[in-house]
Amino acid sequence: MNTSASALLPLPMTTAAPLIEVRGLKKYFGSSDRPVRAVDDVSFAIRPGETLGLVGESGSGKSTIGRTLLRLVERTEGEVLYRGDDIGKLAAGPLRRLRSKLQIIFQDPYASLNPKMRIGAILGEALATHGLAKGPGERERRIAELLETVGLRPEHASRFPHEFSGGQRQRIGVARALAVEPEFIVADEPLSALDVSIQSQVINLLADLRERLSLTMLFISHDLDVVEYLCDRVVVLYLGKVMEVAETRELFERPQHPYTRALLAASPKPDPLVPNERVALKGDIPSPVAPPSGCVFRTRCPHAIEACAGTVPPLDELSPGHFSACIRKDLIRLEPPGRSQGETAARSAEVV
Amino acid sequence: MTKTPAPRLTVRNLSTCFPTEDGLVRSVAEVSFSIQPGKTTALVGESGSGKSVTSLTLMRLLPKTANAQVSGETAFVTRDGRTVDLLGLPDREMRRLRGNELSMIFQEPMTSLNPVFTVGEQIAESVRLHKGLDRKAALAHALRMLELVEIPAAARRLHEYPHQLSGGMRQRVMIALAMACDPTLLIADEPTTALDVTIQAQILELMRKLQAETGMSILFITHNLGVVAHHADDVVVMYAGRVVERAPVRPLFASPEHPYTQGLLACLPGKAQAHGEGRPRRLFAIRGQVSSPLAPPPGCAFEPRCDKAIEGCRQAMPPLIDTRDGRQARCIRVPAAQTFARAA
């Protein structure tokens, strides 16, 4: 499986060696006879400097993937390679050293900062753990620098988390991730706890830092607009499986998988003049304890046929870099970009 | 402009203050708006803008221990054509109105349903109370309500507990509960915020269908401008407890007048897709954050974050003025309606 997986790996269309490679990743929770299949055979790669979006609804396994990548959660099967080395095989010492290269920004800026620690101590702890910025004077300079990097003031170091607003706390979360000069950051829904006006501040901050520090990012989100804005490539997940992978623009202009199309149709555009596409999906996401046979999406898919229950659809490359896991090849529409209004309407009608 | 029927609900100068140890907090100040029969008015704003307090004040559901100081007046037209002031009604009559004429659904269906009763019992309780049905008839009515909100295998679900249902199903039960006594006004406080987008789309579609069938009015409280764009007729934008702009939905999105509304729309990544080569340009951001309600700025509440602020903005809180085409804005930089139009 793993040998063939590398040939089929959804890779970006460049020759650069990937920074992160995920091969056949599985994460099952609970008892071995009836496990919760949170992540079920997921493969993708992230090249240096790239921001990869991971989208899907609750229960799709996106956060579990993020955590498994950093070994905050141990995988059940599969490989996670960082610059070609399997992270899962590392002993405690080398893993801790590697952690300074791999960081995470959490969703809830209220729960992810210790309320009893001052901001200076929160950032200083990250530095101390990895033996960076040694010496008190040096450490204070670095903390002040970090706070300025994320748009806060050096004197904020002496305050406690409760003295900050949600947006400011998320900036502190970003500063903590940056403290150890990482190469790769998992941003796990970093915006969903924030108000719209604050959200755009943090989006700009992430975009700036990414350019300035040439960061590679895995951006986990359920907000398609943010993903379209921030990411270079997108992986669409459903019930622990990859449905579609493509460059962002390609995915949003020519979504191929019925689930991606439904997801795009369901997300309301902030413009009353853009026609509201009708609801395509019936029912709820099935339980990951007993996922449907064959294609996991078939129970809600408007295009499901009998054959969909038979086999797990492979992730096929439809055009360079564009992968979709669906056996209904007759639904594929690869028209050139720059469609007219009429074509857009035709596509919308087809989603219904 | 064609003559519109009397609004289902008119709110005038509603204010809600809470005494706290650090001083009086004005959560809602001088809020005025109206909701037409069969239409949806959206109350939009970020956390702390006072939108939820507005709805709880109208429903008189604020906890007694909060010692809220409420002022202002409302005119609610009941099913039989009487006009009542929700804020002035005796408790007994308000209780009769709640559930019967006024219903509310909340953001988190799990915490608003009782975990120890089946969903059927919970719906039946409200119709027994308000419609005086007996146990059997009430349960039959509950079943009809579950079918109305399109819950599959409703007869089985009737005897299930909230924890056995998914988030989307629970919100459907909440809506069934709210619709059980056929309300004329439904207050929906962030009803889809906790749900996934495909489930959100289902719930919004359901609310739209029920509104078309029953002709109820909806006060839709949300921070999601995408939802507002497609599901509201009129929009009330709130900032720091005050209405800063009021307009029908299309003109509001086409030409927002208040700098806060303009900023809010410009902030949205969905509106900023460059779709050129490479990464898109920087997103517009409203600088800073909402001021503390304990230390509001002397003039306009939005002035410290506003790009268009001038000296006059710091002097006094601008009034909510009529601008054009029946719209209103609370900003001294927005031109007022022509005086001759007012005189005519």
Major sheet strand order of chain B: 6-7-8-3-9-10-12-11
Mean pLDDT of chain A: 87
Query: Which chain pair has the greatest contact?
Result: A-B, 46 and 50 residues
Q: Specify the biggest β-sheet of chain B.
A: 8 strands, mixed
Whole-number mean pLDDT of chain B: 90
What is the beta-strand fraction of chain A? 15-25%
Radius of gyration of chain A: 21 Å
Q: Tell me the helix content of chain B.
A: 25-40%
Number of helices of chain B: 12
What Rg of chain B do the Cα atoms give?
21 Å
Q: Please give the alpha-carbon distance between the first and last residues of chain B.
A: 14 Å
**Whole-Å distance between the termini of chain A?**
36 Å
* Largest sheet data of chain A: 8 strands, mixed
- SS elements, strand count of chain B: 12
Explain how this protein is built:
The complex is a heterodimer of chains A (about 350) and B (about 350). With about 350 residues, chain A is α/β, with parallel strands linked by helices. Among the domains of chain A are: about 115-180, no CATH class; about 250-350, no CATH class. Helices cover about 30% and strands about 20% of the residues of chain A. Chain A has 11 helices and 12 strands. Chain A has helices at about 1-10, 60-70, 90-100, 120-130, 135-150, 165-180, 195-210, 225-230, 250-255, 260-265, 340-350, and strands at about 20-30, 35-45, 50-55, 75-80, 85, 100-105, 185-190, 215-220, 235-240, 240-245, 315-320, 320-325. Chain A has an 8-stranded mixed beta sheet with strand order 6-7-8-3-9-10-12-11, sandwiched between helices. In chain A, helix 4 runs parallel beside helix 6 and helix 6 (about 165-180) packs parallel to helix 7 (about 195-210). The longest helix of chain A is centred in the middle third of the chain and has 17 residues, at about 195-210. Chain B is an alpha/beta fold. Among the domains of chain B are: about 115-180, no CATH class; about 255-345, no CATH class. Helix content of chain B is about 30%, strand content about 20%. Chain B has an 8-stranded mixed beta sheet with strand order 6-7-8-3-9-10-12-11, with helices on both faces. Chain B is globular, with a radius of gyration of 21 Å. The two termini of chain B are about 15 Å apart. Mean pLDDT of chain B is about 90; it is low at about 340-344.
